[in-house]
Design brief:
The structure holds 2 protein chains of 2 kinds.
Chain A lengths: L1 H7 L2 H10 L4 E2 H5 L6 H13 L3 E6 L2 E6 L3 H13 L5 H4 L6 H7 L1
Antiparallel strand pairs in A: 1-3, 2-3
Helix pairs in contact in A: 1-4
Chain B lengths: L3 H29 L6 H22 L13 H28 L5 H24 L14
The chains are: A alpha+beta, B mainly alpha.
Chain lengths: 106, 144
C-alpha cells in the first residue's frame, strides 16, 4: 500500500492516471501532455507500473499504458486529487531533471 | 514487480485462503448459535461477511485486464470494468450496511434488492457501452 501512496503523491503521476481513465494511451501520447523530458516521464511510468496502478504492453514499436486501479485505489486518487497528498516531494521525485529546468539552467 | 505467473499463483493462494475463512467462519457461527451468540447476531454476521466478500472481489475487478490485442475496443472495455467495479463495490457496501443497520426481518429483501440493482445497473451500462453510447469523460480542467 505504501508504494501506492508514493505513486499517488506526485501530481504528474496523478495526471497520468487521470488521462488513462479515458482509455489506454501510448507513452508518446501521454508525454505530449507534459513539459518534462522523456526520461523523467519514463521514471514516472516506472513508479506507476511498480505500484501496479498501470500496465504497460508493447505494441509494435510503442508501449501502450492501461489503467490497472482497483476501486479503492481510484477512490484514493480522487481523495489525493481533491485534498492533495503532500508527502515529502523530494523523495518521490524521479532522479532525472525536468526538461524546463534543464533549459533554464542552459 | 511480480511476474504474471507468480501474481496469479499468489492470487489463487489468497482466494483459497478466503474460501477457507468463509467456511470456517460459517462453521463457527453455526456452532456458537444460539448458546453464545443470538440467532439474529449470527444471521447479521453472515450477511456482513457475504457483503464484504462481494466488495472485495468487485474492488479488484478493474485490475483484471485482458490482453490488449484481444480487445476490440480497449477504452470501452476499461470503462465497462471500472463502472462494474464501482457499482458492485457500492452495492456490496449497501448490502453490508443493510445487514448492520436494518431490522433482521427486513435485511434480506432490502440487501438483495440493492445488490441486484447494482448488478443490473452495471449490466445495463455494459450494454450501452457495447452499443457505442459515449461514456462520460473527465472534466477538461483536470486534463490541462
Amino acid at each position: 500500500m505504501n508504494v501506492v501512496f508514493k505513486a499517488l503523491a506526485d501530481p504528474t503521476r496523478r495526471k497520468v492516471l487521470q488521462l488513462l481513465q479515458r482509455g489506454p494511451m501510448t507513452a508518446g501520447e501521454l508525454s505530449d501532455h507534459f513539459e518534462v523530458s522523456k526520461p523523467t516521464m519514463s521514471a514516472h511510468f516506472a513508479v506507476l507500473t511498480g505500484a501496479g496502478l498501470v500496465q504497460a504492453e508493447k505494441q509494435g514499436r510503442s508501449i501502450t499504458y492501461r489503467l490497472r486501479m482497483s476501486v479503492l485505489e481510484e477512490a484514493l486518487l480522487g481523495f489525493a486529487q481533491t485534498f492533495g497528498i503532500a508527502v515529502d516531494r523530494a523523495k518521490n521525485r524521479p532522479t532525472t531533471v525536468p526538461l524546463r529546468l534543464r533549459r533554464s539552467r542552459a | 514487480m511480480k511476474s504474471p505467473s507468480s501474481e496469479s499463483r499468489s492470487r489463487i493462494t489468497r482466494d483459497i485462503a478466503i474460501a477457507g475463512f468463509l467456511l470456517v467462519a460459517s462453521a463457527v457461527l453455526v456452532r456458537l448459535t444460539p448458546a453464545v451468540i443470538s440467532r439474529d447476531t449470527s444471521y447479521r454476521a453472515f450477511g456482513v461477511m457475504l457483503g464484504l466478500f462481494v466488495m472485495f472481489y468487485a474492488n479488484e475487478a478493474p485490475k483484471v485486464l485482458p490482453r490488449l490485442d484481444r480487445v476490440r475496443n480497449p477504452a470501452g472495455e476499461q470503462a465497462r470494468r471500472r463502472f462494474a467495479g464501482w457499482t458492485i463495490t457500492l452495492g456490496g457496501l449497501a448490502y453490508v450496511l443493510t445487514w448492520v443497520l436494518a431490522p433482521v426481518a427486513w435485511a434480506p429483501p432490502i440487501s438483495m434488492t440493492l445488490l441486484a440493482l447494482s448488478v443490473a445497473l452495471s449490466m445495463a451500462r455494459c450494454v450501452l457501452i457495447r452499443r457505442g453510447v459515449p461514456s462520460s469523460e473527465p472534466p477538461a480542467s483536470i486534463l490541462e
